[in-house]
User: Fold this.
Amino acid sequence: MKKFVLFPVLFLYVSAGLPAETGRPVTYGLHILAGGRYDDVRMCVGSDAGVKGGPIMDVYADIRFPVGDRDNLALNIPIMRPILFGAAFQMLQFEPQMSYEHHLGKLEEPHFILGGGLGVVFHYGPDYKSSMDDRGEDFFAWGPLFSGFLGRQFPGENRSWMPGIKLFYSPLLSDEYRDGMVLGTALELHMLYKP
Assistant:
């Protein structure tokens, strides 16, 4: 568990000197994710009891560090689901990740972006057989998170937009419950701001 806490800190420390080498600034932003997933472990608050999976939505805070002339490393921190699920449903669903993005085409013009991410999924709550009215026993599960992304960026002077599609997969591991997996796809809309 300590490794997953220390890795983002190390990433930010190492990345701090990258913007000076590339000439491009660090950018900040948000992105919205909405889609669906197969999930044979966790309860989905948007599905009936016994349904393996359902809709998914989240809002992320993003920090992008330029690497070279046309690549970025990005830290994606989920903020909506951890707060909402903790306050309203007494559950933890937290899925931070680090992403790599490669720009295809001229950066100052609309262009495509290919990317992939590596993160971790944390869950604490009941299983998919549960509902809000008939809640099962809470348990902890976690697993690595793998994702791929294709988007198109529309650059602006101080703000850019990037709609895209994301595919993701996570094998979920638990000592208290059987292992399972999450597999899904979602649409994303990124908003990037230059300081």
Remarks:
- Residues 2-15 form the longest helix (14 residues).
- The radius of gyration is 18 Å.
- Helices lie at 2-15, 18-22, 80-89.
- The first strand starts at residue 27 and ends at 39.
